[in-house]
Design goal:
Elements (H helix, E strand, L loop, with lengths): L7 H10 E11 L13 E12 L6 E4 L4 E7 L2 E3 L1 H4 L4 E4 L5 E13 L4 E6 L6 E6 L21 E6 L5 E4 L3 E3 L4 E4 L12 E4 L2 E9 L2 E9 L9 H19 L8 E6 L6 E2 L4 E5 L10 H17 L7 E2 L6 H18 L5 H16 L15 H6 L4 H17 L1 H15 L3 E2 L1 H12 L3 H8 L7 E8 L5 E9 L6 E10 L5 E11 L3 E3 L11 E3 L9 E2 L3 H10 L6 H16 L5 H11 L6 H18 L5 H18 L5 H13 L3 H12 L11 H13 L5 H10 L3 H13 L3 H13 L5 H11 L5 H4 L2 H15 L2 H10 L8 H13 L5 H26 L2
Parallel strand pairs: 1-10, 7-8, 16-17, 17-19, 20-21, 22-28
Antiparallel strand pairs: 1-2, 2-7, 3-6, 4-5, 4-7, 8-9, 9-14, 10-13, 11-14, 12-13, 15-16, 18-19, 22-23, 23-26, 24-25, 24-27
């Protein structure tokens, strides 16, 4: 990573000096199918950049990360690569008013998911390539001016192995010489250009709307073709295009719309115009719940929203990353709820996405939605819960504050004024002020330019007859923000249902706001101060409401209200205000009645974390038995063949630890045990086998037998994970060496190995690696790509060594490494904060005894 960083100041200076007229990029990828590692290590990349000098300087640099450069020509002058290329930058002196730069380089294929990733399918030996650039990895494939505000048209040509198909942002075809040539793009930033190449399975369709016709394509590896439900992908795509055309009044501007599901992908997806890339796990190999289909639809719509928010109009620098990611996250849920079959997507948003935001906003690394991004390493780490989920939550609040019509009209004007250009925060705010009549700058100062999450709680008084005399909303936080919120009153009816009987919206400002409209109402059993999830806050309960939820959470009839209650109870647990064992008790009592499958899956994740991280250590074993027992009970009583049954089966497998539990899993795998309606497909088989490996009941031979049943890329990842999860000191030493001391594993196998290495049931076994972790991470950060560095530093932090000694060791490392890379220190600080939070929660749980 040294030398590869780019600062905001450098980007500003370069943008003031030049503008780019266009790129011509010629790639020769025939080496991808070479017979030796050396043959497939690099490919030829020839780039021609035409640019103009618009400032007063005569020197700048182009970006390129490559093993070697064969030739550099600037305005016809041959430059010595040894003198001008340092491995990350090409120095350019003597600029003229109009310039042509030609760079002939050998670029490297990637195994980390950055740049030009090369994947060999173990199932059939086929090779697949794709690119992934955000925030600044186009320079690993071709010479660039790698910053978002230097947009330019791109024209790609690709020479590929015989029998391959190649795709890029524009439409393309193979000429008589065997070269794939693609139409020139409109002006786009380098980080959203893309090339996908290989023997992909490809399906086509067409979207039509009046005179507009958009060719649609969807692709995956040949080995996944039998599982690929392209019809559903196209259905969501067409519904999304209808929704965005209806609301944005700006026709889709990038011609075709291909969607590629690619292997070993680091992200969920990437919004490359005309060629969106997704992780191939969205091609489902076995039975999954509707929550999985909803999540995929949300991602499809999120990336589609980027065609306008991010691709058509792009932020100047990564400070305003929210201008694309927050909007896309909001629009994904918005479009899902209004244009597809997933009408309850705001329930998922409230329960799942906002949980991510709440966690990120309480870390020491919290930042405003409009962050201070000093360089590319900062940018990489700011693709986080604040930029995505908090930003989207703030936009949901903005719609309530400014009005839906004003918000959408603002978006329409924004696109028309700034099409194919770059913007900053003020550009959007000025337009929203026009359309809403509201003071957007004051709103932005509170919501976009400050950090932290507010706590809203009810303060209610009653008269002698039990009617409300005053209901106020109390607000806590370093920054007291304006909230447009709704307060709902709920009570238990004669039929046992907990339903809302009164609601009032209010503008909450300051530390205490009286909601006058609710005075005189009968005493409620439950008060929700963020009913309908209009604002972004942590919600607290009065004592009566909390007591009601302990007895009646499953009786809340409204799915969104119920999801908000689950989320609030989880926040109480994480904050050390509710014992972990109490959250477990509520979950075991009511999770079986949760109708929303996405909420149920989130509760399952939370309750496992409650036992693993937040329960007092002396209660963990009992808590684990309770979870497995509850999971098995719900598994046996769930409707046969239902998605709830599948979800409980996965939960039971994840919590099983006793001999009886493990014997049942073995029986389900070998067919000697059966649960009516439960289809034990290949993906579920791996889930059932996982605890057997972690508890020493499935050895290398048994795991190998399962791989023989599923000799695929996905099966290989499962095998690697399970091998690393075995309870053996030798196994852990080997896994550690493969990840920390070697760089031979691909990004996907690094991730799988880390997941196997870290097992909650093996705390003592992996305890010796805490000291090794702190000794290794600075060297590893310097030697590896930032993606692998992030995966290892986050994944191998000794969080399971949850004691004061580990906290002290973390503090000692931070004190001794004040000059370490800021991004590395941020990751360690975040892990330290999670550890300290866990210790506080454990004290709360211990005090409950």
């Amino acid at each position: 990573m040294p030398g590869e960083n780019l600062s905001r100041d450098e980007a500003r200076e370069r943008a003031a000096l030049l503008s780019v007229d266009g790129y011509e990029v010629d790639l020769d990828l025939r080496s991808a199918v070479g017979d030796s590692d050396e043959a497939v290590r690099t490919f030829r990349s020839v780039t021609t950049i035409r640019f103009r000098r618009t400032g007063t300087g005569t020197s700048t640099f182009a970006d390129l990360i490559a093993p070697s450069v064969d030739a550099v020509t600037l305005n016809g002058r041959s430059l010595d690569p040894a003198e001008v290329f340092d491995g990350a930058r090409i120095a350019l002196d003597g600029l003229e008013d109009e310039n042509t730069l030609v760079v002939d380089a050998r670029c490297a294929y990637s195994r980390t998911g950055e740049g030009m990733h090369r994947f060999v399918d173990p199932e059939d030996g086929e090779v697949y390539l794709y690119t992934q650039y955000e925030p600044a990895d186009a320079r690993r494939v071709y010479a660039t001016f790698e910053q978002p505000d230097l947009k330019a048209p791109h024209r790609f040509s690709v020479t590929a192995p015989e029998g391959w198909t190649v795709w890029s942002n524009g439409a393309g075809e193979r000429d008589a010489e065997g070269v794939w040539r693609f139409a020139e793009t409109v002006p786009v930033s380098t980080y959203i250009t893309c090339v996908v190449a290989g023997p992909y399975h490809y399906v086509t369709d067409t979207y039509r709307r009046g005179d507009l016709e958009i060719p649609l394509g969807a692709m995956c590896r040949k080995g996944l073709a039998k599982h690929f439900d392209a019809d559903d992908v196209f259905l969501i795509t067409k519904q999304g295009l209808d929704f965005f055309h209806d609301n944005f009044d700006f026709p889709y501007p990038f011609g075709k719309y291909d969607q590629a599901f690619v292997p070993e992908y680091n992200l969920g997806a990437m919004e490359n115009p005309g060629l969106v890339t997704f992780r191939e796990e969205y091609v489902f190999r076995g039975k999954v719940t509707q929550a999985s289909y909803e999540a995929r639809a949300n991602v499809v719509l999120h990336e589609m929203a980027h065609m306008w928010f991010g691709d058509l109009v792009t932020m100047v620098w990564w400070d305003d990353l929210w201008l694309k990611e927050s909007f896309a996250d909001f629009m994904g849920a918005f479009a899902n709820a209004e244009a597809t079959r997933f009408t309850h997507s705001w329930v998922t948003f409230a329960n799942n996405r906002k949980s991510w935001a709440y966690r990120a906003d309480q870390l020491p690394s919290t930042h405003p939605v409009t962050a201070d991004i000093r360089d590319l390493e900062d940018a990489k780490l700011n693709f986080d819960g604040i930029t995505y989920a908090k930003g989207a939550s703030v936009l949901k609040q903005l719609v309530a504050y400014a009005g839906r019509d004003a918000f959408l009209e603002g978006a329409r004007r924004y696109f028309k004024r700034h099409a194919y250009g770059n913007t900053r925060l003020g550009d959007l705010l000025a337009i929203l002020e026009e359309t809403s009549g509201r003071d957007m700058r004051a709103w932005a100062k509170s919501w976009l330019q400050t950090s932290g999450v507010n706590v809203l709680a009810p303060d209610v008084t009653y008269d002698a007859g039990g009617r409300i005399t005053e209901l106020a909303v109390l607000q806590e936080g370093d920054e007291l923000r304006p909230h447009r919120t709704a307060v709902g009153l709920y009570r238990v009816g004669a039929d046992g249902a907990l339903t809302r009987y009164a609601r009032a919206e209010a503008d909450v400002t300051g530390a205490r706001t009286v909601v006058a409209a609710l005075a005189g109402e009968e005493r409620p059993d439950l008060v929700l101060v963020n009913d309908d999830d209009l604002t972004y806050c942590k919600m607290r309960f009065d004592e009566g409401s909390l007591a009601t939820l302990r007895k009646h959470l499953g009786d809340v009839t409204d799915p969104l209200a119920r999801a908000l209650c689950w989320s609030a109870l989880w926040n109480l647990t994480r904050d050390g205000l509710m014992p972990a064992r109490d959250f477990v008790a509520v979950a075991l009592a009511f999770a079986g009645r949760e109708t929303e499958i996405g909420v149920l899956q989130m509760v399952h994740a939370w309750v496992r974390s409650a036992v693993t991280l937040y329960a007092a250590p002396e209660w963990r074993e009992e808590g684990g038995r309770l979870l497995a027992g509850g999971g098995l009970r719900e598994l046996r009583t769930a409707e046969p063949g239902s998605e709830h049954q599948l979800t409980w089966a996965r939960f039971f497998a994840a919590t099983a630890s006793t001999d009886a539990d493990l014997q049942l899993l073995e029986g389900l795998l070998d067919g000697t045990a059966r649960i009516d309606g439960l289809d034990v497909d290949q993906e579920l088989r791996w889930a059932l086998l996982s605890p057997l490996a972690a508890h020493g009941r499935a050895d290398e031979v048994r795991i190998g037998e399962e791989l023989a049943r599923d000799d695929t890329a996905t099966g290989k990842r499962h095998q690697v994970r399970l091998l690393a999860s075995r309870p053996s000191a030798a196994v852990k030493a080997q896994a550690w060496a493969q990840v920390v001391e070697s760089d031979t594993l691909s990004n996907a196998l690094v991730e799988a190995t880390i997941a196997g290495f870290v097992q909650p049931s093996q705390r003592e076994l992996i305890a010796p690696y805490a000291e090794k972790y702190f000794a290794a991470i600075e060297r590893l950060w310097a030697e590896r790509s930032i993606q692998i560095g992030m995966d290892v530093v986050r994944g191998l932090f000794p969080a399971l060594q949850d004691d004061a000694a580990t906290l002290a060791a973390t503090d000692a490392w931070l004190s001794a490494h004040e000059s370490a890379a800021p991004a590395l220190r941020r990751l360690v600080l975040e892990a330290r904060d999670d550890l300290a939070r866990a210790l506080r929660a454990q004290e709360c749980d211990r005090a409950a005894v």
